[in-house]
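WARN no homologs supplied; continuing
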Amino acid sequence: MQTSVFNALKNAFEQGRFPQMLLLDGQAGTGKKRLAMDFAKMLCEHSSEPIIWLTPIDGKEEERNTPAKIDSKVAELSQKFMQNPFHTGYITESAIISVGMVRHLLRNFELKAYGNRVAIITNADSMNDDAANKLLKTFEDVPPNTYFILTANSRHSLLPTIRSRSTCFSIPFLSNSEISETLKLYGYATPTEDILEFAAGSAGKAMLAVDSNYSVLKEKIEVYAQHALEGDASSAILCAQSIEKDANIAAFFLEGLALYLLKIYSGRCSAHIQSIHFLLQAMLAKKFTAEHAIQNMALRLAQKAV
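OK structure emitted
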């Protein structure tokens, strides 16, 4: 999988040119963590040094500044990634990488290394500015035999100075056949056409959709949309009351609604798509609850016919 990127970096490794700072970016769930782990194993094959992980974590600020709690949460997440590096449901939208977490990571490099040493920093675009600037100081002069492999949904969310010091590769979307093969590899049944359409090139998103029973959710989305588009916001809201009041489920609901509107109205629903994008961002910023976002969208659909 992702053969061209893997082969290019494998050749660089064999020629002694593997970059000390590697950035893999692209849609969540397309295999960036899988590649990062493959490269880390390659680099550490003859090293006694363990692979170091840094992942975003949620919780209170003091928990992201307490070494024992950082180690515990990062170890839990890294185990999940090693079992299934494609799944996108392990890291919450509110999770971040703080300066305290970066400071804790860098303590690993104060000790002498016995062989190559690799740090995998997942979802690096979730670093706050203080964390990114702290990491940048190390990137300006990476110690010998030390490699940082970063993954991000978008390289443009990172500091330009971090991007400029990294060798960057974009990981492409997966084909439907690649998604089906990946799901089978990790114990899932062959995804339906609805799941593949919703996944939009991401095996991880397909896995999360299966786990969240998206096929059933899609039926509720269509009934909700039909009521709202007829001007009956109350019936639409009533229909959506049985949906679990969870941010991930609400995000799936709104994304599925966007697909439905695009399918029935083609390019004539841009105002509604903009509203969905706004509500998704508002939920991410915790300005709307999941329940309020779905209610708000019903009112918008009812008040403004396409």
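DSSP finds 14 helices and five strands in the chain.
OK
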